[in-house]
Amino acid sequence: MPRLCVVGLSHKTAPIELRERVAIPEGGLSDALKRLTGLPGVREAMILSTCNRVEIYASLDESIAVELLMPFLSGSHAEVEKALYRLEGDEALRHVFKVTASLDSMVIGESQILGQVKEAYALAVAAQTVGPVLQKTLPRAFQLAKRVRTETDVAKSSASIASAAVDLAEQIFGKIAGRSVLCVGAGKMGDLSARHLKSAGVGPLHVVNRTLSRAEALADKLGGHAAPWSDLESLLAKVDIVLCSTGATEPVITAEQVSRVMRARKGRWLFFIDIAVPRDVHADVGQIENVYLYDVDTLEKVVSQNLEGRERAADQADKILLEELARFVVAERHQGVVPVIKALRGHFEQVARAEVERALAKVHLDDRARAQVAQIGDAIVNKLLHAPLTALKRTAGDEQADGEALAKAVRELFALDRLEVSAERSEVAEVPASEAGEVPAKEAGKGSR
To answer: pLDDT band for position 444 (50/70/90)?
Structure first.
């Protein structure tokens, strides 16, 4: 049977330099999914690519090793490959649950990851790379995330990347009320972080983007001012805080550019918040006097100050996660014996129905009596099946028992696989009486004479 597998890297296993190397832009995800499911033995796939993690969730045939997925992300680069984790089965399931519930995030309890996982799942559904394994796993993960957010305090305190950026700005400037802000890029994370800055009371807010219409749309939402990309350097000379979140593949703000800007600023501090992956601001910018530069990794230093309460709540969230995992596993085991239960009951009912009809053909009874005979046949079937069906269900829910072996034995004992094949061919699926342990009616008298 296909199994759930995860291959990826995150802020826990790789610095930003490696994460940005394997990040997949939104526009390339559909093509990447099609290439993934084109690999031998890959039944299903979805890709989660955020600033903190790049992960493949896939369903693989039993004969396919999870390592097959590693070169897809690493490109055979040893440094990247070393940072990749690979999980399968219950470990993969637990990881997907933890990620979706924001228990594996840089900021435990942050809300963005749930939306990002939902978007990744929706994109995979649209690309037709989702099948029964992911269809069962992801909705259950979304259900868990809802329980964690409503039943614990893990998301109650302010400790998101966006709020961390505000905290850091206040550490540098003191109060940031009235400070001017420039948003470089009009992406979702920039929108969210800018809203946090606005709620903290910043002053004039400007937005530049390579596509002016997108800058105008974000500026309208935030009550700011849109400007063309050509105004970037002149705006850098005026504002106090620069929030960068473009989708560029290389830095859009260079050290040479900022050096010119700082001469015009005459020593006034300039604070860059670079939440883009790959980074928008070249690392050398942070070496310039009176310039403060923080990327998504260094923001973790601020985040750590707000995590104590969330860590305590995370213990409670972990208990909920274990409950949901146990329910999911038991449900899956029960689901595994459902086809056997249906086939076994169908076989017994078919044999009983055939025998009842054969007996009724030999006697003359009114409709009420015939119905009573049929009910007797159903009652016999129910009594005969009670013990085996109870055993199948009980074994399916018992971690220590081998439910799969019992289900296989039942299939073999009653030749259910052969019967199902016969039914598909529209043939009579009744097992001969001799195979069912009975003597055929026409030969019943031979042994007694």
So the answer is: very low
Q: Which domains does the chain have, with CATH numbers?
A: 3-156 (3.30.460.30), 161-306 (3.40.50.720), 334-385+401-448 (no CATH)
Over the stretch 169-227, which tens digit does the pLDDT of each residue have? 888 898 899 999 999 998 787 888 888 888 889 999 999 999 999 999 999 999 999 99
Asked if 207 and 224 count as a contact pair (C-beta separation under 8 A), the reply is yes
Active-site residue 51, yes or no?
Answer: yes
Q: Starting from the edge strand earliest in sequence, which strands make up the sheet with 42-49, in order?
A: 42-49, 53-60, 3-10, 85-88
Alpha-carbon distance values, 191 to 160, 202, 244, 378 (Å)? 14, 14, 10, 65
Length of the chain: 449
What does the pLDDT look like over 227-247, one tens digit per residue? 999 999 999 999 999 999 998
From 5, 51, 183, 244, active-site residue: 51
Q: Is the pTM above the cut of 0.85?
A: no
Helix boundaries (H) for 230-307: 232-236, 255-265, 300-303
Alpha carbon distance 180, 354 (integer Å): 85
The closest of 22, 57, 64 to 40, measured between CA atoms, is 64
Q: Which residues pair with 6 in a beta bridge?
A: 57, 87
Structure-block tokens of residue 333: 């085991």
Encoded amino acid at 32, one letter: A
* Longest Cα–Cα distance in the chain: 119
Burial of 131-151, coded b for 16+ CB within 10 Å and e otherwise, reads eebbeebbebbebbbeebbee
The rounded distance, in Å, linking the Cα atoms of 417 and 388 is 18
Per the listing, tokens 């099948």 go with: 131
User: Coil, strand or helix: which one is 102?
Assistant: coil
Q: Between β-strands 225-227 and 241-244, what pairing exists: parallel, antiparallel or unpaired?
A: unpaired
Contact assessment for residue 229 and residue 265, using Cβ atoms and an 8 Å cutoff: no
Residues 6+ apart with CB under 8 A from 24: 32, 47, 49, 54
Q: What is the three-state SS of 327-384? A: HHHHHHHHHHHHHHHHHHHHHHHHHHHHHHHHHHCCCCCCHHHHHHHHHHHHHHHHHH
Q: Tokens 């799969």 appear where?
A: 404
